[in-house]
Amino acid sequence: MNPELIATVYDLFLSILLFLSIFGFVTWLISASQSSSGHHASNFQISPSAIVTICPLACLLEDAPSTALKGQFYPLATPLMTPLACLLEDAPSTALTGQAYSFSCIVTRTWQEYYRQNLGKPGINYWQWQNFPEVNNVSPELSLLLKLPKPQGSAKAVLENLPQSNDSLLVLKHHQRLAWQQWHNQALRMIDKQALAEIYRVCYQVSWTVVQNQLDPLHEIVSDELQPWWKILGVTSAANSLQVETAYKKLLRRWHPDLNQSPYATEITARLNIAYEQYQQFQALKLENKTLLTKIRQWVKPFKSR
Asked: How do the domains of the chain map onto residue ranges?
């Protein structure tokens, strides 16, 4: 006989045996609960020891995202547990009554705890949870986040890695920052800055200051060595000395490595200093030209009077 066929039949037999064992356990548990409740089915209660037993089972039987169960267990659990998932589904109180509803409430609490434990952790794609009603009771910030556009590509990767990166470790490439900036701007068009800041704090464990540092347009300006000094300092080419001094000192206070933990702080500070030196050279050249022009006028003046 074909060895592959034997292995397939053996796996099928084990799967059916596992299903029947779990189904029998659930049936026994519900029957025991019914007999203990007597004539008061609406006051159904489960002992703490039973809850400990049910919770792992409920986690297995629930229609979880594929990331929740790893390895061989998820492919095995999915086809086998579908009938039981209907019983344990987190349905509203009008759909399940009596003991079935009480049992399903345990599943709901279990999944809410799962979501809370994973809130703010790296590598979490929150939009996988979008269609699960328990998510709405986990955090207001998470509920609001799931109403925002779903990030794609580089923006998704950046957001998922934010919780494990503080400002001093978060180094982004140009395309990553651009993708994140686009998603960030979309979000700001839908909700206010304070609400978005709370989403970053709760769901991604980063402060608004870190977000501002990373998305500052100065990054793109500094990366271009051909940018003139006035664009780097954020002024116009016709700005007076006071305006240039004020802009330079303000940027320096923000980006100095002693005051800012961003990995770009040293690079940006150096570029600001170069831009200010270029401004000073421009001013010196401007003064020299003005002096030279004055001398030329003085030299030409006698000839004009003749």
From this structure: 3-118, 120-208, 216-306
Distances (CA, A) of 42 to 38, 96, 129: 10, 12, 31
Would you say domain 216-306 falls under CATH 1.10.287.110? yes
- Phi first, then psi, for residue 191 (nearest 5°) are -135, 165
Residues of the chain with pLDDT under 70: 1-12, 14, 18, 26, 29-109, 165-170, 220, 223-224, 288-306
Amino acid at 82: T
Give the pLDDT score at 152.
Answer: 92
66-81 burial, b for 16+ CB within 10 Å, e for fewer? eebbeeeeeebbeebb
Q: Which of 150, 265, 286, 283 is nearest to 216 (CA)?
A: 265
**DSSP annotation string for the chain:** --HHHHHHHHHHHHHHHHHHHHHHHHHHHHHHHHHHHTT-GGG----HHHHHHHHHHHHHHS---TTTS-TTHHHHHHHHHHHHHHHHS---TTTS-HHHHHHHHHHHHHHHHHHHHHTT-TT--GGGGTT-GGGGGT-HHHHHHTTSPPP-HHHHHHHHHGGG--TTT----HHHHHHHHHHHHHHHHHS-HHHHHHHHHHHH---HHHHHHHH-THHHHHH-TT--HHHHHTS-TT--HHHHHHHHHHHHHHH-TTT---TTHHHHHHHHHHHHHHHHHHHHHHHHHHHHHHHHHHHHHHHHH-
In this prediction the pTM is: 0.50
